[in-house]
Amino acid sequence: MNFVGQHQKALDDAEAIEADRTAEAAGVPQVARSSGMRSRYAWIGTAASVILFAVSIGVLWKLVQTVTWAELHAAFTAATSKQLGLAFLFVCVSYLFLTGYDALALRQLKVKVRYRITALASFTSYAVSFTLGFPLFTAGTIRYWIYSREGLSAPKIAALTVIAGFTFWLGMGVVLGLSLIVEAGQLAGLTFTSIRLNQGVGLAALVAVLGYLAWVSLKRRSVKVKGWRLELPGASVSFSQMLVGIGDVCAAAAVLYLLLPPGLTIGFTTFLAVYVLAAMLGIASHAPGGLGVFEATILLALSSLPRDQVLGSLLLFRVCYYLVPFVLALAMLGAYEIFKRAQQVRRGADPDGRP
Predict the structure, then answer these.
(1) Cβ distance 247 to 93 under 8 Å?
(2) Dihedral class, residue 127 (left if φ above 0, else alpha if ψ from -120 to 50, else beta)
(3) Which residues, including other chains, have CB under 8 Å from residue 291's CB and lie 6 or more apart?
(4) Are 120 and 95 in contact (CB under 8 A)?
(5) What is the Cα–Cα distance from 238 to 345, expressed in whole angstroms?
(6) Contact of 156 with 38, CB cutoff 8 Å
(7) Which of 232, 252, 311 is nearest to 95 (CA)?
(8) Is residue 228 over pLDDT 90?
(9) pLDDT tens, 28-57?
(10) Which helix (H) or strand (E) holds 313?
C-alpha cells in the first residue's frame, strides 16, 4: 500500500510550504523556519499509518470473504424510506454542526464573515476532504479559495483550520470518555477488554478535556505551529467548541446507527464509543474517510450481527454521509464560481467599477 506513504509525504510537503508562507508573512527568519519544519522521526508516523491500514484491510478482507454479492445487495437495499429519511436528517444536522467549527474559529480570530459564506466554506471543504482525503490540500484549498475573497490572509486561514481541529477533538474526547464510563460493561464484551480498562481510558479522556479547559481558563495560552504563534481560544469559546464537537459526533454516529439492521442489541451510548474508536483509527490511518479501517472496526465490534447486513449498512452510510454531500458540494462550488465570475463581469462593465 505505497499510496498511503505517498499521501503522508504529500501532506508533510504541503505543511512545509504553508509554514514557509505563514512564517514569511510573520517575519520569521528562514533558518528558524527550516529547523522547525522537518522532524527527525517523521517516518515513524508514516510507517504506523501504513501498518494500521494494511492490517485493517487484511482484517476487512477476511471478514467479508463469507459474504456473497447477492447477500450484500439485499442488505444494501433493505433500508426503509423511514430509515433513509431519518439518516439524511442527521446528515444535515452533522454538517450543520460542522459549520460551527469555522464560525467559532472566526470568532476566536476576531474576523467577521457572513454566515452563508462560512457555511459554504465549511460544508464544501469537509464534504470534499472526507471523500477524497488529502485534507490539507482539498479542505485547505477550498477554504483559501472562498475565504481569501472575503479578505482573509493565508496565516488567518491556516489558524482557522487548526482551531477547527481543536473543536473536533474536544467533542471526540468528551463523547469517548462518557460512553466508555457509562457503558463500560457492555463495551468490554464487544471489544474484549475489561470494565476497569474501559473506565480508566474514559476517565483519562475526560480528565484531558477538563484539564485543557482549565488550562485555557487561567490565562491566555498560545502554541507555536510550524514556526508561527497561534493564540488558543479561552474558556467560553473552548466550551462552545466542546458542545459543537459533541453535537457533530453524535449526529454522525446516529446516521450509521439508524441504518444498521434490526436486532441491534446495543444502545446508542454504547455504539457511540464504538463509532468514535472506529473514526479515530480511521483518522490515524490517513485513508480517505478512514476507508477500510473504519469498516473493519465496526464489523469486529458488531460481530454478533449478520456480517452481510452490517456491511450493507456501512456502504449505505458511505453513500449518505460522504457521497451525497460530496456531489452537492461540487455543485455548490460550481455555482459559487459562476456567480463570482458573473459578478466580476458586471463590475467590469460598470464604468465606475461599482457592483
Answers:
(1) yes
(2) alpha
(3) 282
(4) no
(5) 42
(6) no
(7) 252
(8) no
(9) 344 344 444 445 555 665 665 566 556 546
(10) helix 307-318
Tell me how far CA of residue 317 lies from CA of 67, 145, 233, in angstroms. 18, 29, 33
- What DSSP designation does 233 have? P
* β-bridge pairing 222-225 and 228-231: antiparallel
Which has the closest alpha carbon to 124: 93, 153, 102, 155?
A: 102
Q: How far apart are CA 312 and CA 302, in angstroms?
A: 13
Residue 328 reports pLDDT greater than 70: yes
Q: How far apart are CA 52 and CA 56, in angstroms?
A: 6
CA distance linking residue 235 with residue 213, whole number of Å: 6
Written as nine digits, the cell of 172 is 471526540
Distances (CA, A) of 83 to 76, 311, 317, 320: 12, 16, 11, 11
Residue whose grid cell is 469486529 = 300
In which residue are the cell numbers 449518505 written? 320
Mean pLDDT of 155-174: 87
Is residue 32 within 8 Å of residue 73, measured between CB atoms?
A: no
**How far is it between the farthest Cα atoms of the chain?**
74
pLDDT at site 44 = 61
Count of C-beta atoms within a 10 Å radius of residue 279? 23
Question: Between the CA atoms of 11, 13, 16 and 17, what dihedral angle is there, to the nearest 10 degrees?
Answer: -110
Torsion of CA 83, 89, 90, 95, to 10 degrees: 140
Q: Environment class of residue 178 by beta-carbon count within 10 Å: exposed (0-12), middle (13-18) or buried (19+)?
A: middle
Q: What is the mean pLDDT of residues 258-269?
A: 84
